Amino acid sequence: xxxxxxxxxxxxxxxxxxxxxxxxxxxxxxxxxxxxxxxxxxxxxxxxxxxxxxxxxxxxxxxxxxxxxxxxxxxxxxxxxxxxxxxxxxxxxxxxxxxxxxxxxxxxxxxxxxxxxxxxxxxxxxxxxxxxxxxxxxxxxxxxxxxxxxxxxxxxxxxxxxxxxxxxxxxxxxxxxxxxxxxxxxxxxxxxxxxxxxxxxxxxxxxxxxxxxxxxxxxxxxx
Length: 223
Prior knowledge:
- By secondary structure, the protein is of the alpha/beta class.
- The chain has one domain (2-222): 3-Layer(aba) Sandwich (Rossmann fold), CATH 3.40.50.
- It is built from nine helices and seven strands; from the N terminus they run βαβαααβαβαββααβα.
- The protein has helices at 11-22, 29-38, 42-52, 59-71, 88-100, 115-123, 163-177, 180-185, 200-214, and strands at 2-4, 25-28, 79-82, 107-112, 125-127, 134-136, 190-195.
- The strands form two sheets. The chain has a five-stranded parallel β-sheet, with helices on both faces. The protein has a two-stranded antiparallel ribbon with strand order 5-6.
- Helix 2 crosses helix 3 (42-52) and helix 4 (59-71) packs parallel to helix 5 (88-100).
- The longest helix is centred in the last third of the chain and has 15 residues, at 163-177.
- The chain is globular, with a radius of gyration of 17 Å.
């Protein structure tokens, strides 16, 4: 499953919930890159200057990291892609990687919201550097201020969540990533739209309804 949508629309929050409920692996390229950067790997150092400026990391770096991560996912286990692919080159590379591994994309969920809503939302976003869970001081605050609900790690306000950087990221999304919606609509993949400016629980319910509707039904399960 791929979650598409502009920065701040709620892909991170919805991806965590989906992975927990359905027992799926969650692949977040931002987390992969930050981990590589923290470890001081060559890829991490190369990616740092792009991330801090709100620019896209080169496709070659992203594709290599995602392929490596996918190869470690057990056969038969579902995957939620959060924030990947972001370009047509990445989308094409992902299709090739999935074919190599005997996998395929079943659903593309597009979360939608207006730019002004997203800038304000991202300014209030706080992320857990350990588990990847995302909170928001305006709409989805942590139970204990400043600490992750899941593992009690201190939450951080990322440099790429500053308003000026967010506006640049939105420009990049509309230019390079939004066209992927048409890319998948023209393929055999199911594409569905969910408002991302509603309550977290309502958005999650809508996504699960889409999954249920689009999942083939096995009559033997009724026996």
